[in-house]
Amino acid sequence: MRETDGNQTVDRKDDHIRIVEEEDVETGGTGFQDIRLIHEALPEIDYDDIETSVEFLGEELSAPIVIESMTGGHPNTTALNRALAAAAEQTGIAMGVGSQRAALDDPDDGVAESYTVTREVAPNAFLYGNIGAAQLTEYGVDGVERAVEMIDADAMAIHLNFLQEAAQPEGDVDARNCLAAIETVADELSVPVIVKETGNGISRETATRLADAGVDCLDVAGKGGTTWSGVEAHRAAAANDRRHEKVGTRFRNWGLPTAVSTLEASGCHDCVVASGGVRSGLDIAKAVALGARAGGLAKPFLGPAGQGTEAVVELVEDILAELKTGMFVTGSATVGDLQDAEYVVLGRTETFLDQR
């Protein structure tokens, strides 16, 4: 069923945050546990001189850390986005907002404010917008530009969430002509385009198609973190929708592990964000060694965002300390050095890659 009610979109955003905070919707199995960086006992660098800055879509980030697209679209989420964006401003990392469909469809100022607050408190941060691939035909390039203008975005993410839509009682499951629409937006939009999955990963085949379409960056968002089909199973259960509940539950472990997807996508594109169950600076260090430009986290920031900006900043600093330590003990003075760090792939991830 195609959703047309803007208020329904707004209410769904509030449901999503509540379920992610309160229910068991984690899958595990990112594959990072099977990635072992080779220890350098003689790093021959000064920890204090390690340079974590990285070029990202024409801008410089202080570290290869991204606060992933999480929320917006409900007045209750304004404070969360304010804290996240203020922390991104203070620490010099990137941040994405959640799907802006709610604000494009609903003229309510409270809905729009949940997004616009990000640029208000983060005038210099790298912020990117967000819209679904399934909505591109409806909005066109002009509509996507409206989303860019809403937050004065430095880039625009187009999310691929078709499994979530299939598990959603009101989901939009018409996936026809999305690649052509993505190619048009990538060619005509005023800012770089990121295509991101939402918890199920991007294969090398899909990464190649997106690279050929002119997409500027791929965010793999692989299996191992929040399962959005699992989130929709909870929503369906609350609505007494047995069939969608069963679909969401059945597919909660579906997808390419994040480590696998990072390796596959980075073999096809030179700008990849590894996300999906990334939970530490060590995970980011492993992702960069696998070929990623940066690593993204979502759920770990949700609780701190509820406490305020300083709690988010503290988490960023914890992640950065772990990342720098990973760089130090691999002898990596720069992020570029870390991309060349030696690693070994073990266990199920090795088997997965061998079968691929």
Automatic annotation (TrEMBL):
Q: Return the Pfam families for the record.
A: FMN_dh
Q: Which SMART domains does this chain map to?
A: IMPDH
Reactions this protein catalyses: isopentenyl diphosphate = dimethylallyl diphosphate
Sequence positions that bind substrate: R12, K13, S99, Q100, R101, Q164
Q: List its EC numbers.
A: 5.3.3.2
Which coenzyme or cofactor does it need? Answer: NADPH; FMN; Mg(2+)
Q: Where in the cell is it found?
A: Cytoplasm
Q: What residues does the FMN-dependent dehydrogenase domain cover?
A: 173-341
Q: Name one GO molecular function term.
A: NADPH binding
**HAMAP family named among the record's database cross-references:** Idi_2
Please give the subunit comment from the record: Homooctamer. Dimer of tetramers.
Q: What is this protein called?
A: Isopentenyl-diphosphate delta-isomerase
Q: Which organism is it from?
A: Halovenus salina
